[in-house]
Design brief:
Its EC number is 5.4.2.12. Its cofactor is Mn(2+). It comes from Hibiscus trionum (Flower of an hour). Pathway: Carbohydrate degradation; glycolysis; pyruvate from D-glyceraldehyde 3-phosphate: step 3/5. Helix content is 30%, strand content 16%. It is an alpha/beta fold. The chain has two domains: 293 residues, Alkaline Phosphatase, subunit A (3-Layer(aba) Sandwich); 234 residues, 2,3-Bisphosphoglycerate-independent phosphoglycerate mutase, substrate-binding domain (3-Layer(aba) Sandwich). α7 links the parallel β4 and β5. α7 runs antiparallel to α9. The chain starts with 17 loop residues before the first strand and ends with a strand. It binds 3-phosphoglyceric acid and cobalt (II) ion. The site of 3-phosphoglyceric acid has 11 residues, from α3.
């Protein structure tokens, strides 16, 4: 597949241990009270910043720089880690789906043909995240898909919604459900039997990731497939409004929509078609397994309907999961991880469960598993289950730091790569005090890793995948914080469009290595070539240019 020997770097040596540290959700922003990274004590990251401009700079982490449709698209971990690992910019799921819908190609593909064979006798079920966050899915894409599917023969449609409040503001779910209900009413006027059938908050129902907690998927299965949930409503808007009295959007308990006889309006049965309409993989893989695998032992499915199932995209290229999909995923090939392993670089990668796949699966181009198990070790530290991230904002940062330290000191690896999740996961809760605690814990973990690099004479690269914790409030065009009608500050739980820092250093960094100043627009995709250089190689020609140069002194 073209992944062969890399050229030796003319000036940089091999054999140095390189730590690659990705702080999740750690952008650069002006100092202010809602910038949790600024407010938190972060002496290690602060000291790295002193190295600017030669050893510290900013890089882009949002929009087209990471393959997203527009400059207004905030970054996210999937596209961020894809770019970091692949060293090139690929048009990402969001954009590929936009194109396939706009051109109508989506309806001509194998995946749509496959599911449409059920339209005559069965129901089409659409399951996914209902918001305009653009990280996992987008409302406008769902709207187009509903319209297109009905024009291409779907007569009975059931939508199983997952409310967001994580990539968008808490409370916005009500408006999204109203919009969807309105669209479905329009379809009904055209003679299509279209309804919302079930729902629940994304963090509590269905959208778990990396097999952290299968109960989350089971709750969704019960509602979506079996038509069973502790909460029954005849109307989804009412359901969301009522359930919001005790939980916020991301954590709404599961509900099913029932008819006047108290029967669920849309369980999934033999002969139906199912589409999971999220384009992003990580939080759909578990449901895809439950829908697709005949042999499945993660929870009792009770009933396993014979359905035709397609993902919006194929979510896992290695597992070929699901086997049918509406849009082909970006073909992220020849990643830096694969090149380095083929060139005998021994790699250690680690994070806690909720981010583990980010430094492995996403890093390697949405591919699970090792390139060469003899040369690689991926360690997953189990995340706490069922404890909100703002309740335990330190998460597993110190454990990740210690595992990385041990891997570095063992001298068994050339690259030690970690993701430290706090800025992101705690930032998504919108809890400012907790996020400050999380940022401090992340900074301490970085110190542990840098100290180990110091001991072995290695090199470090510290960067981030996108912004989050550096701004916790919504703002108007002028940049001033927004307040709601009750005078309450509007909290920002989502990512941002800010750039992220990158720092290089360590005793193993050859003298004369510094950031070049001729790639001012550099982004996450430029990091792969940079890291390859630090391992003593020149990156393949089609990689985005390295950020560093070596000056003779
Ligand atoms: C999530 O899946 O947690 C969020 O939607 C995005 O966060 P991430 O891109 O940082 O994982
Ligand atoms: Co995030």
């Amino acid at each position: 597949n073209g992944v062969g020997k890399l050229e030796d770097h003319p000036k940089l040596p091999k054999g140095k241990t390189v730590a690659v540290v990705v702080l999740d959700g750690w952008g650069e922003n002006k100092p202010h009270q809602y910038n949790c990274i600024h407010v938190a004590q972060t002496p290690t990251m602060d000291s790295l910043k002193q190295g600017a401009p030669e050893k510290w700079r900013l890089i882009r982490a949002h929009g087209p720089a990471v393959g997203l449709p527009t400059e207004d698209d905030m970054g996210n971990s999937e596209v961020g880690h894809n770019a970091l690992g692949a060293g090139r910019i690929f048009a990402q799921g969001a954009k590929l789906v936009d194109l396939a819908l706009a051109s109508g190609k989506l309806y001509e593909g194998e995946g749509f043909k496959y599911i449409s064979e059920s339209f005559e006798k069965g129901t089409l079920h659409l399951i996914g995240l209902l918001s305009d966050g653009g990280v996992h899915s987008r409302l406008d894409q769902l709207q187009l898909l509903l319209k297109g599917a009905s024009e291409h023969g779907a007569k009975r449609i059931r939508v199983h919604i997952l409310t967001d409040g994580h990539d968008v503001s808490d409370g916005s779910s009500v408006g999204f459900v109203e919009t969807l209900e309105n669209d479905l009413a329009n379809l009904r006027e055209k003679g299509i039997d279209a309804k919302i059938a079930s729902g629940g908050g994304r963090m509590y129902v269905t959208m778990d990731r990396y097999e952290n907690d299968w109960d989350v998927v089971k709750r969704g299965w019960d509602a979506q497939v079996l038509g069973e949930a502790p909460n029954k409503f005849t109307n989804a808007v009412e359901a969301v409004k009522k359930l919001r009295e005790t939980a916020n959007d991301q954590y709404l308990p599961p509900f099913v929509v029932v008819d006047e006889n108290n029967e669920a309006v849309g369980p999934i049965v033999d002969g139906d078609a199912v589409v999971t309409f999220n384009f992003r993989a990580d939080r759909m893989v578990m449901l895809a397994k439950a829908l697709e695998y005949q042999d499945f032992d993660k929870f009792d499915r009770v009933r396993y309907p014979k359905i035709r199932y397609a993902g919006m995209l194929q979510y896992d290229g290695e597992l070929k999961l699901p086997s049918h999909y509406l849009v082909s995923p970006p073909e992220i090939d020849r990643t830096s991880g694969e090149y380095l392993v083929r060139n005998n670089i021994r790699i250690f990668a680690c994070s806690e469960t909720v981010k583990f796949g980010h430094v492995t699966f996403f890093w390697n181009g949405n591919r699970s598993g090792y390139f060469n198990p003899q040369l690689e070790e991926y360690v997953e530290i189990p995340s706490d289950i069922g404890i909100a991230f703002n309740v335990q904002p330190k998460m597993k940062a110190s454990e990740i730091g210690e595992k990385a330290r041990d891997a570095i000191l063992s001298r068994k690896f050339d690259q030690v790569r970690v993701n430290i999740p706090n800025g992101d996961m705690v930032g998504h809760t919108g809890d400012i005090q907790a996020t400050i605690v999380g940022c401090k814990a992340a900074d301490e973990a970085v110190k542990v890793i840098l100290d180990a690099i110091e001991q072995v004479g290695g090199i470090y690269v510290v960067t981030a995948d996108h912004g989050n914790a550096e701004d916790m409030v919504k703002r108007n065009k002028a940049g001033e914080p927004l307040y709601d009608e009750n005078g309450e500050l509007q909290i920002l739980t989502s990512h941002t469009c800010h750039p992220v820092p990158i720092a290089i250093g360590g005793p193993g960094l050859a003298p004369g290595v510094r950031f070049r100043n001729d790639v001012p627009d550099g982004g996450l995709a430029n990091v792969a070539a940079t890291v390859m250089n630090l391992h003593g190689f020149v990156a393949p020609e089609d990689y985005e240019p390295t950020l560093i140069e070596v000056v003779d002194n």
